[in-house]
TrEMBL record:
Species assigned in the record: Kangiella sediminilitoris
Subunit details: Forms an icosahedral capsid composed of 60 subunits, arranged as a dodecamer of pentamers.
Record key words, sorted: Riboflavin biosynthesis, Transferase
GO cellular component terms, A-Z: riboflavin synthase complex
Top-tier EC class: transferase
The protein's name in its UniProt record: 6,7-dimethyl-8-ribityllumazine synthase
Active-site residues annotated for this sequence: H91 (proton donor)
The gene coding this protein: ribH
Amino acid sequence: MSDFKLDFSKTEYKGGKIAIVHARFNQPIINMMIDGVEQKLAELGVPAENVERFDVAGAYELPYATQQVAMNGGYDAVIAIGVVIRGDTPHFDYVCAESSRGLMDVSIKHNLPVIFGILTVNTDEQAEERANPNKMNKGGEAAATAIEMINLTRNLAN
């Protein structure tokens, strides 16, 4: 595990709507990720009415749902949240590769920040450590990244 920690101390919310599209599979860990996202968004001053949540079965469905949100929602960024834990079959590799590629495709196609908040881990313990808002808080990182990308997009448009 890396000791590197992103510095979001200068991240400032300047407006924008955010969609959280999350999987339901591995729900307890997903809940921690969503808690981290929502806590960080609130900490950064994002009004609750500017955040909307959508859920799908698993990580593999995230790209399609994210594309639907991108086409129909008027959002400034989408945070995709999922958890894929390695098992005994190649399923992990397929789901991780395709969900990752699919989310990037949506971002490029729709010129919209799509934040990759899918944990791809080997064990339940790794997932819990990364998802827990009091530990690595990857959900919080995804939220702050969304704000930074909204700001970047707006700054470049001016």
